[in-house]
Structures are given as structure tokens and as C-alpha cells.
Amino acid sequence: MRVLVAGATGYIGSRLVPRLVDAGHTVRCLARDPGKLRDQPWAGDVEVVRGDVLDRASLDPAMAGVDVVHYLVHSLASRGFAATDRRAAATVAAAAADAGVRRLVYLGGLHPPATAGLSDHLASRTEVGRIFLDGPVPAVVLQAGVVIGSGSASFEMLRYLTERLPVSVTPRWVHTRTQPIAIRDVLAYLVAATTLPDEPNRTFDIGGPEVLTYADMMRGYARVAGLPRRVIAPVPLLTPWLSAQWVNLVTPVPRSIAVPLIESLEHEAVCTEDDLRDLLPGPVDPTPYERAVELALARMRDGEVESHWSAASPAGAPSDPLPSDPSWSGGSVRVDERSVRCDVPPERLWRVVEGIGGQNGWYSFPLAWAVRGWADRLAGGVGLRRGRRDPARLHLGEALDWWRVEAIEPGRLLRLRAEMKVPGSAWLELSVTPDGDGSVYGQRAVFVPRGLTGQVYWWMLWPFHGVIFGGMARNIIRTAAR
């Protein structure tokens, strides 16, 4: 089959692509910025085309000759996401029909049979599925609940809440029933949906073998992780909005994502049928919940997390790529630039540069970085706790604490773009240049202020630049010299 994957840079999509290739399919990936897929280990096995699900003109050539389209796009964290998703789904459905596509495959959300009163998040995913089902191209709409896998937003929220809170004061949604599913099973069902016999045009519920409450899931996680039994005290007065503020502070999941996730947990998410398994060519053995947790923790422990929830960014997000030099703005650009010659071989210096952030920290004034991270979380931003997916390697487009990797030239240059709440746009660029028996370490912090607030912000922090940026340069070189 010739398959187009829309959403190949996201958590599910970037894992699905290599499995489709392994299944013998010819895969084409649609991406707004193809460069974000450059460092994927499977990049050489697929075709990558530039396109946007909101841009019909870019979809026509992308769908030419395609048999099946996997649609794995959801603009959860952006304002007005329901309208954006509605327009994108309608655009994709029309383009698929005109291109002669034989099947659409969509991963939606598991929800109660009655759709009235659903959260905005679930209602939007349900609406997208309905648009595809009502369109001219047969659609397979898989509906999943909480996905358990290393790097998923749902799993990260569960993990941090359980690990950091031995005693939890919880809202009523922790006692709502759900049917969690392992990421490996989700991917297996998606691959199978590509070649289902006949032309089904319907929804299929998919889930794991157990029906659990969120409290059951927290206790199960604690057992697998070797933690003491968690005490969970229900407080019905806690609203989803209040719960999201707490999740924003305790976990790496920012408020913009926590709110719709928690609102969706208010609804029971239990499979009402298991018809898909009857259509599969071979037997399927769903992964038990605690086994899924074991697999996720093992992946994290071994540094083999394939993808992370923070990797994808919606259209218009601050992480979208900009020209390499911010002077494009035509306004004032504030720069702190430093260059230091050292006797450290360039390859050793680069290892420290590429390993920056996450558990390794930022090599200067840790308290200042921590305070700024907490302030960003309180303002609804991403903060510092997104960490890094791999302890030693960075890839184009992935998240690194409150930054996004905007450019990386191995051994030479790393450019990060800030995603924290800030009155303007900010970059941090680190470079390594060979120089005889040593290296020249380059460091450039760039800020494009927005209005008077941005100017005041820069000058308020200016007295600390020597400590923060000067200390960073000295400590990176000192670490590399050890």
C-alpha cells in the first residue's frame, strides 16, 4: 500500500511510520517543516513532503497516488482548536476524495455512547471522526482512551502525580472508569487498519484488557515502580480547572494541555465493542496495564524513548521555525554574545554542548533557572521540566526544557528557540569551532522584544547576564576539560 501519514512529527505518528515501513508499505510523510524529520532513524526509508492539513493546495500533490491516509493531527494546545480541527478534517476529506484515496484512518478518543456534554477535547475529536465518516472516502476511526507509553502526555501526568505525591487530595474524576491501552497496541491496530478487508466505514473502540479508575492506575504504577502504596483522598469539590493548575505545578504537562486532558477524564472511557479484533488476520493479545507501565519505564531507564508528547507543535506555535537571524524583525534586537578560546578538543566540547539541559542542567546559577521555570509554570507556560528525550543526543524540532531545537549541525552548532512565556522572542545559540589543538566556544543569546514590556524585561535581566551567560560559557568549557 502507498500510505500518507499526516502528523508524522507527533507522538503517535513518529512511531507509526517505521512500523508501516516494516509492514511493507510505501510511506510518504506530510510535514509543515520537513526538516523536523531529518534526524529520524527512518528518514531515509520514506518520502517527506512539505504540506499543511489546512492548505488544500499542498495536499493535492501530497496525496497523488496514495491508497491510504493516516490522519494523526490534533491542535489540542492552540486557541480555538475545535474550529481549526474541523476545517482541517474537511479539507483533508475533500482532498482525499479528489485524489482517489481508498481509505482514511483516524485515531480519535474513546467516549461514552451519549455524546452530549462531552469535554471540548473529546467533542472535537468525535467531530473530526464524524466528518471523515460522513465524507466520500471510507474511514476507519479508532477510538482509544488513556495511552500508556514512554513519553505520552497521559503517562507523564500519571507518572509525576504518582511519584511526587504519596498522599493525593483528588477530585472525583480519579474514580471514573477508563480502559487504558498500551502504545504498542495502539500502533498495532493502526497498522492493521491500513489493510482491513472490504471497505469498513465506522468507528472501532480499542482498549487494554482491564477497566480501571485513575486511582487504580496510580496504585498500579506505584506497584510497578516499587513505590509505597499511594493514599488517595477524594475531594469532590475540586473542579477540572483547579485540578489542571495542580497538574501544571507538579508535572511537566503545561496547563494548556492539562486542562483538556483532565476535562476528558471526567467522562467514562470504556469500550462498548471489540469488533476490530474479529477483522484482524491473526490473534491479538492486548497488553495488561501493569505490563504497559513496565515497558514504558524500561524504555525511559534505557534511554530508548522513541517520541515525546512535547515533540509536536501546532500551527502558529512559538516553536515554528523562523529565519536563522532574528534581525529579520526590523525592530530592536538585543544580543549577548561571547566567544572563548580553549584547549579542549572540539569533539569533547560538542558532547557537553549537545548534552545541555535536562538532568545536566544549564551550567550556571541553577537557582535562577529554577525560579524562572517555576514562574513560567505559574503563568501557564511549559517551565523547565520537559527535560530531554535522550540524555546525549538532540534532534531537530524536539523539545529541550523550555526550548525547542531550531537548528543543529552536529559538531558545530546548536540553536534553541524559547517556548517559555516571554514578552518577545528569544534564542540561545551555542557553537564549536576547531582552532589548532583546541576549540573556540561561541555563545549568543538573542532577544527580540515585543513592545515596552519586552524592553523592560530585557533591561531588568541585563545586570544578571554576566552571572548567567558568562557562567554558562565558563562552566561548559570547564566540564568539557575534565
UniProtKB/TrEMBL annotation:
<protein>
    <submittedName>
        <fullName>Uncharacterized protein YbjT (DUF2867 family)</fullName>
    </submittedName>
</protein>
<dbReference type="InterPro" id="IPR051207">
    <property type="entry name" value="ComplexI_NDUFA9_subunit"/>
</dbReference>
<feature type="transmembrane region" description="Helical">
    <location>
        <begin position="456"/>
        <end position="477"/>
    </location>
</feature>
<dbReference type="Pfam" id="PF11066">
    <property type="entry name" value="DUF2867"/>
</dbReference>
<dbReference type="GO" id="GO:0044877">
    <property type="term" value="F:protein-containing complex binding"/>
</dbReference>
<keyword id="KW-0472">Membrane</keyword>
<keyword id="KW-1133">Transmembrane helix</keyword>
<feature type="compositionally biased region" description="Low complexity">
    <location>
        <begin position="309"/>
        <end position="319"/>
    </location>
</feature>
<keyword id="KW-0812">Transmembrane</keyword>
<dbReference type="InterPro" id="IPR021295">
    <property type="entry name" value="DUF2867"/>
</dbReference>
<dbReference type="InterPro" id="IPR036291">
    <property type="entry name" value="NAD(P)-bd_dom_sf"/>
</dbReference>
<feature type="domain" description="NAD(P)-binding">
    <location>
        <begin position="7"/>
        <end position="110"/>
    </location>
</feature>
<dbReference type="InterPro" id="IPR023393">
    <property type="entry name" value="START-like_dom_sf"/>
</dbReference>
<dbReference type="Pfam" id="PF13460">
    <property type="entry name" value="NAD_binding_10"/>
</dbReference>
<dbReference type="InterPro" id="IPR016040">
    <property type="entry name" value="NAD(P)-bd_dom"/>
</dbReference>
<feature type="region of interest" description="Disordered">
    <location>
        <begin position="308"/>
        <end position="336"/>
    </location>
</feature>
